[in-house]
Amino acid sequence: MLVGYARVSTQEQDTSVQIAAMHAAGVRVIFEEKASGAKFDRPVLRQCLASLKTGDHFVFYKLDRVARSLSDLLKILDRVERSGACIRSLTEPIDTTTPTGRLMLQILGAMAEFERSLIRERCMAGQKEAMARGVHCGRALSVDDATAVAIVEAYATGLYTLKGVGQRFGVSDSVVKRLVYKKTKPNYRS
C-alpha cells in the first residue's frame, strides 16, 4: 500500500500541491500535518510511520517535507525499514528498495541540512546587520518607551523582584527580564 505524508510549516500554507501529486501517483492514505520540519517529534508523522506495514511505501512529495537534518532522516529511514516498508519521493530519484536509492536519500538529506544551515546563517547575518543599523528585530515591545524606562528603573532600585516589577506594571516577568537584560547587557538578544 502507498502511504503518503504531506507537510507544510505554517497554518497559512496548504498541502494541496502535495496532495494532488499523491493522488495522481495512486496514494489513497495520506497523513497531513502543519508543523515545522525542524522538529523531529511531529505527532502526525509519528502516526504515519506507526501505520506502515511490510510491503508498504512511505510516499512524500519532496524530501524536505519529511526531514530537515540528516540525523532525523536516518532515524525516519530506520523506522520505515524496521516496519518492512520502503521510501519513495514523488519529485526526487529516491526509492530505498535499491542501494542507489538509499545513497540518493542520504545525499539529498545531507544537502537539505546544508541548505537549511545556509538559510539560517544568512538570516542571522541579516538580523545582525539590521541591529547594527538600529532596526528592532523580533516582536514589538508590549510597553511604550516611558514605561520601559520606569520598569528598568524600578528593578534597578533593588526593592522589587522581576515578578514584583511585572505585577506593579501589569506585564509578564519575561517582559521585565527582556527590558532589564537589554539595558544591563548590551549584547543580549531577546
TrEMBL record:
Q: Which residues are named in the active-site annotation?
A: S9
Q: Which residues form the Resolvase/invertase-type recombinase catalytic domain?
A: 1-134
Q: Does the keyword DNA-binding apply?
A: yes
- SUPFAM superfamilies annotated for this entry? Resolvase-like
What organism is listed for this UniProt entry? Comamonas resistens
Q: Which residues cross the membrane?
A: none
Put simply, this protein is called Recombinase family protein
Q: Does the keyword DNA-binding apply?
A: yes
Spell out the InterPro entries in the cross-references: Recombinase_CS, Resolv_N, Resolvase-like_N_sf, SSR_resolvase
User: Which Gene3D superfamilies does this one have?
Assistant: Resolvase, N-terminal catalytic domain
Q: For this UniProt record, give its keywords in alphabetical order, as a comma-separated list.
A: DNA integration, DNA recombination, DNA-binding
Q: Can you tell me which family this protein belongs to?
A: Belongs to the site-specific recombinase resolvase family.
